[in-house]
């Protein structure tokens, strides 16, 4: 029954997308891959609208799908449409490659049909999908940066998930690989190079990175399919100048962005190509408008909810409370090099070693051979497209980020190699041997993401799926624990990502938002003593009547400025914080109140590396006498340089003290309890700790000081209930 | 259109003002008390914690002890407390004294004896028996080294204290 639901969910999604694609294309193009992928863009857009309207229900999707299928009467329309004749000459080598690719697709199918256990599929791709279904649409999610990425693929997952849950989503992604491989073959046929198409498609399809990605609830292969089909449609439009292809080109280009931000290149490519070929404004406007239709919803959603249309990136251009600039910089910096020492290591790491999150396969080390295809116009077009769709690669050098340009590279390699008799076939056969999953297991390190052979009983859910989850998702029992011991609506904070697609509770992962990072710092300052506010920076000046004070930071460096409490004194007594006071800070004003709440566990943080021009300001709303300003903060802000200015009532700032005197304060007693209460106040109900985390011992030994209770344990994880 | 939208979205750089928030219960002791449960020698008020046996003033973040240093603390009622101190045996004095045994007494009762066989910075921490403490009252801690060195001007020098007091 479960398998039937999964297959129905996936097939119904594919059928609906195909129907929508057929409606959009009419007779313009009858090739299934084009119709399916284009229709996926339309379906994704429609699901977005339903989610925005709070109409995410299986019944709504069923109606949408049935209406689309009925409206297009696919076979009637398809029959009339012009289709590429696919028949390849039934030679032995063709049959051999069809058999090899068929075997690999069977492996991928089993993997996709089995319970979904991929790293990102079992976490953010499907956790947000499941949330949208539970909540019947979008709700503001500021605690998970991944929810701000464009989620065009998640919209398709949502459609499938509503009927078949997690595995149906993975199967939908696999359908994109089928479409891509099919279209590569069609491209070869159209250019009277069927063997090139077949070899290129086989090189792509057998790649371990492509296989494991396509059979999981990811989006990289879908983007590759969009990129390649966009390339084919542009090529076709350039030949035929069929006006009906222009909206399809725009929709596909926009869908690329909706799938993944890196897909913006498709929009630029499509607009640039049409402008260059037509040299007229109208075709360009049609493409741009249709692309905008699919791009704009994601920008608008982020603009309204995250104050940044391009969230979670470009936060320095669109400052917001949800993602800090220093985090974004660290985040991007890591993905630009992972753990490599140099970019020169990328070719080997991405093709053989698996240290960039998977392997493309050793034969792609021979990709430079494909440069021989540059001798032909088609080869040059392929390499241009590869460059365009790979242009973003160095912003994230993960091996799967090479998938979008890979179809073009594979075809270029095939073009070059087919000029040498037997060479292309030999290479594909070698590729098939080297990429056989057990063989890949011998090449790549343990932990590198790769495909394993899925027993068919597991794939068809004939054995207990719980067993499969436990064997393939080490932290799955943690989600079971959370579901079992926490009431619905609970919020759990963790430093380690758990497969939250399998729990309905809200999981806050440490790095996924500014608020989560603040919670993490509060927790860590109590548990391991980092960032405890033991430093006192005291500005002393002759007593003055002041309207406002401002602490300026004047240095540049890598430190991030932080203040736990800012106290203003007169005659040795702290001025009470009155309702007339107005507080601000630059940058990151949103948490300035945390430096004025009398709690040493909370803090204001600049959210970016120090530079001149940063300040914290208090306007008293009237004249107040003061002679001291004391900043309490962490001791490790060695790079900051502060000065104090005051407004004596005439609106001009006067220097009151050019530097503070530093001293150490007493560690606070009751800090753990205060931290626990603050986390609770911020909506966190539970803390999930693992034995290998630095703070787990403190939590275990000092439960009384924290005021927490053990809610349950699973493996090395302990779930603590906050007071 | 996209460029216009992005430009408009980015125009949000004006200052945002907030009132003071609800005040949380203080974790600090009342400011009317002359001293608290923990002292850093860089604290301008460090002298208030010293009963005797220290140099008159701190040198930056630290202060020399003499033969019988004694500190006093006001210790609030807490579920559990540890005594913690950061101290240093400088090379110059250690060359004279050799290994030093430090006897730590809490309210006159021997909490611990620690033997330091190397010069340099040390962190000492130990759980304090609850019944030895005077909660919400004054507690004394004596830190007696068994050997002291003689400074250039004949001053008896024990060790250098950076901070000491009670923590959770």
Describe the structure in your own words.
- The complex is a heterodimer of chains A (723) and B (168).
- By secondary structure, chain A is α+β, with helices and mostly antiparallel strands.
- Chain A has three domains: 2-443, no CATH class; 478-527 and 673-721, no CATH class; 535-664.
- Chain A has 26 helices and 15 strands.
- In chain A, the strands form three sheets. In chain A, strands 3, 5, 6, 7, 9, 10, 11 and 12 form an eight-stranded antiparallel beta sheet that branches. A five-stranded mixed beta sheet of chain A has the order 2-1-13-15-14, covered by helices on one side.
- In chain A, a hairpin with a 2-residue loop joins strand 5 (565-570) and strand 6 (573-574).
- The longest helix of chain A has 39 residues, at 152-190.
- Chain A is elongated, with a radius of gyration of 29 Å.
- Chain B is mostly beta strands and 168 residues long.
- Chain B has a single domain (38-167), classed as Jelly Rolls (Sandwich).
- Helices cover 10% and strands 43% of the residues of chain B.
- Chain B contains two helices and eleven strands; from the N terminus they run H-E-E-E-E-H-E-E-E-E-E-E-E.
- Chain B has helices at 2-10, 91-97, and strands at residues 38-40, 50-54, 63-75, 82-89, 100-106, 109-116, 120-127, 137-145, 149-150, 156-157, 160-167.
- In chain B, the strands form two sheets. In chain B, strands 1, 2, 3, 4, 5, 6, 7, 8 and 11 form a nine-stranded antiparallel beta sheet that branches. In chain B, strands 9-10 form a two-stranded antiparallel sheet.
- In chain B, strand 9 (149-150) and strand 10 (156-157) form a beta hairpin.
- The longest helix of chain B has 9 residues, at 2-10.
- Chain B is globular, with a radius of gyration of 23 Å.
- The mean pLDDT of chain B is 90.
- Classes of the chains: A alpha+beta (723), B mainly beta (168).
- At the A-B interface, helix 13, strand 6, strand 7, strand 12 and helix 24 of A face helix 1, strand 1 and strand 11 of B.
């Amino acid at each position: 029954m479960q398998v039937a639901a999964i297959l129905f969910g996936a097939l119904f999604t594919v059928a609906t997308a195909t129907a929508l694609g057929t409606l959009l294309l009419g007779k313009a193009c009858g090739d299934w891959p084009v119709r399916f992928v284009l229709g996926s863009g339309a379906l994704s857009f429609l699901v977005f609208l339903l989610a925005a309207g709070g109409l995410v229900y299986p019944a709504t999707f069923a109606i949408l799908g049935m209406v689309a299928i009925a409206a297009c009467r696919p076979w009637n329309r398809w029959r009339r449409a012009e289709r590429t004749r696919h028949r390849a000459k039934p030679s032995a080598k063709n049959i051999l490659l069809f058999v090899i690719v068929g075997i690999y697709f069977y492996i991928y199918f089993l993997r996709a049909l089995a319970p979904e256990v991929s790293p990102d599929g079992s976490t953010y791709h499907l956790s947000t999908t499941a949330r949208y279904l539970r909540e019947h649409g979008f709700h503001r999610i500021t605690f998970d940066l991944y929810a701000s990425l464009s989620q065009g693929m998640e919209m398709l997952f949502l459609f499938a998930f509503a009927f078949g849950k997690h595995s149906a989503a993975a199967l939908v992604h696999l359908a994109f690989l089928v479409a891509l491989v099919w279209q590569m073959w069609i491209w070869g046929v159209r250019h009277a190079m069927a063997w090139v198409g077949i070899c290129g498609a086989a090189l792509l399809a057998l790649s371990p990175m492509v296989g494991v990605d396509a059979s999981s609830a990811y989006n990289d292969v879908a983007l590759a399919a969009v990129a390649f089909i966009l390339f084919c449609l542009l090529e076709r439009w350039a030949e035929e100048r069929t006006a009906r292809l222009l909206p399809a080109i725009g929709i596909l280009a926009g869908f690329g962005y909706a799938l993944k931000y890196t897909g913006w290149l498709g929009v630029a490519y499509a607009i640039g190509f049409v402008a260059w070929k037509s040299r007229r404004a109208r075709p360009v406007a049609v493409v741009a408008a249709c692309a905008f239709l699919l791009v704009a919803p994601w920008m608008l959603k982020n603009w309204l909810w995250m104050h940044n249309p391009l969230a979670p990136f470009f936060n320095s251009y669109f400052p917001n409370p949800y993602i800090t600039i220093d985090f974004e910089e660290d985040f991007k910096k890591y993905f630009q090099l992972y753990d490599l020492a140099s970019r020169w290591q990328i070719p080997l790491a991405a093709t053989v070693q698996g240290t960039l999150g998977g392997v493309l396969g050793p034969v792609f080390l021979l990709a430079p051979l494909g440069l021989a295809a540059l001798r032909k116009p088609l080869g040059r077009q392929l390499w241009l497209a590869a460059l365009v769709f790979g242009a973003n690669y160095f912003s994230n050098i993960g091996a799967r980020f090479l998938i979008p340009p890979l179809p073009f590279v594979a075809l270029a390699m095939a073009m070059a190699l087919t000029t040498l008799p037997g060479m292309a076939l030999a290479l594909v056969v070698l590729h098939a041997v080297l990429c056989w999953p057990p063989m890949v297991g011998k090449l790549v390190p343990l932990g590198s993401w790769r495909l394993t052979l899925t027993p068919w009983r597991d794939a068809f859910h004939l054995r207990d799926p719980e067993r499969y989850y436990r064997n393939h998702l080490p932290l799955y029992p943690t989600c079971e624990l959370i579901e079992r011991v926490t009431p619905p609506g609970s919020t759990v904070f963790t430093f380690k990502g758990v497969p939250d697609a399998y729990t309905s509770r809200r999981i806050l992962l440490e790095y996924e938002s500014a608020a989560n990072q603040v919670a993490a710092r509060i927790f860590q300052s109590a548990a391991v003593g980092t960032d405890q506010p033991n430093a006192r920076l005291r500005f002393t000046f002759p007593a003055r009547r002041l309207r406002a004070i401002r602490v300026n930071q004047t240095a540049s460096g890598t430190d991030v400025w932080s203040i736990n409490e800012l106290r203003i004194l007169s005659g040795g007594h702290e001025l009470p914080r009155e309702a007339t006071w107005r507080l601000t800070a630059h940058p990151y004003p949103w948490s300035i109140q945390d430096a004025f709440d009398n709690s040493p566990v909370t803090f204001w943080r600049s959210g970016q590396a120090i530079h001149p021009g940063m300040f914290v300001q208090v306007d008293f709303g009237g004249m107040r006498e003061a002679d001291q300003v004391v900043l309490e903060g962490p001791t490790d802000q060695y790079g900051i340089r502060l000065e104090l200015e005051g407004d004596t009532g005439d609106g001009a700032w006067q220097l009151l003290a050019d530097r503070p005197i530093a001293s150490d304060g007493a560690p606070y007693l009751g800090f753990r309890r205060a931290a626990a209460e603050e986390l609770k106040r911020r909506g966190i109900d539970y803390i999930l700790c693992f034995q290998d985390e630095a703070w787990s011992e403190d939590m275990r030994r000092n439960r009384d000081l924290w005021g927490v209770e053990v809610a349950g344990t699973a493996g090395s994880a302990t779930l603590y209930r906050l007071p | 259109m996209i460029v216009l939208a992005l430009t408009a979205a980015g125009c949000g750089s004006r200052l945002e003002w907030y009132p003071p928030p609800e005040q949380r219960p203080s974790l600090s002791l009342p400011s009317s008390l002359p001293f608290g449960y923990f002292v850093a020698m860089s604290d301008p008020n460090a002298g208030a914690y010293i009963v005797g046996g220290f140099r008159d003033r701190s040198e930056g973040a630290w202060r020399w002890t003499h033969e019988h240093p004694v500190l006093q603390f006001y210790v609030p009622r807490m579920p559990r407390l540890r005594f913690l101190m950061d101290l240093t045996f400088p090379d110059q004095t250690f060359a004279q004294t050799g290994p030093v045994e430090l006897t730590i007494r809490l309210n006159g009762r021997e909490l611990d004896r620690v033997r330091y066989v190397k010069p340099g910075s040390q962190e000492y921490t130990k759980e304090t028996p609850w019944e030895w403490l005077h909660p919400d009252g004054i507690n004394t801690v004596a830190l007696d080294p068994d050997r002291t060195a003689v400074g250039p001007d004949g001053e008896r020098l024990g060790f250098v204290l950076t901070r000491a007091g009670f923590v959770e």
